[in-house]
Design goal:
58% of the residues lie in helices and 5% in strands. The chain is mainly α and 196 residues long. It has a single domain, classed as Glutaredoxin (3-Layer(aba) Sandwich), CATH 3.40.30.10. A hairpin with a 2-residue loop joins β1 and β2. The longest helix has 17 residues.
């Protein structure tokens, strides 16, 4: 749900393709906005649209479909999409990645509302999840508690803005600066951190 995470996706894909095979990747959800059915305030809408424009300037070729703001009722509620990713994670890493990408593409490119349960149900089917299980578990307390655990862990290691990259070696976790257009720069930083 984070537009900057979406903008980082192409470089992140390049980074993962070149990562040292000793490194395993774990996605941690940051939450952002709790459950709500209230329309997004105008001030927030304008801020988010401004971020989209800033991304287009900073990370060229990042596609955004601004029709979203006319076709959908924006709601500042990212927890449902986060729980959808958690349910996909339970099915396997490939489903987790597919769900993240499906939600991003639906929101930013197809002007579909990622806060809408029906959108999430459709995306779950699209990525191959068991839709009956997905529907019954999306708003389940167990799923919510798993999300809160992810959010707590993210905050405990300094993940307060997104995207964030961290490298854990043994019991030491360190922040890795990211770059939106230069995968090589991030890979060098990771390599240097591994040498220490």
């Amino acid at each position: 749900m984070c537009s900057w995470c979406y903008a980082f996706r192409p470089v992140w894909t390049q980074i993962q393709q070149q990562l040292d095979t000793r490194i395993s990747v774990q996605y941690i959800l940051g939450g952002l906005a709790p459950d709500s059915d209230q329309p997004m305030p105008l001030e927030t809408r304008l801020y988010v649209q401004g971020q989209w424009r800033k991304i287009i300037e900073t990370v060229p070729d990042t596609p955004f479909n601004f029709a979203f703001w006319e076709q959908c009722q924006p709601i500042r509620s990212t927890y449902p999409a986060c729980r959808a990713v958690l349910l996909a994670r339970q099915q396997g890493r490939e489903y987790e990645i597919a769900m993240i990408q499906a939600i991003q593409d639906a929101y930013y490119q197809q002007a579909r509302n990622p806060s809408d349960r029906n959108t999430l149900y459709t995306l779950a089917q699209q990525v191959g999840l068991d839709s009956d299980v997905f529907i019954s578990a999306l708003d389940d307390d167990t799923t919510q508690q798993a999300l809160l655990a992810d959010i707590h862990f993210a905050r405990s290691i300094g993940g307060n803005s997104f995207p964030s990259l961290f490298l854990q070696q043994n019991d030491v976790i360190q922040s890795i600066p990211h770059h939106y257009t230069d995968a090589a720069k991030v890979l060098r930083t990771i390599k240097e951190a591994l040498i220490r």
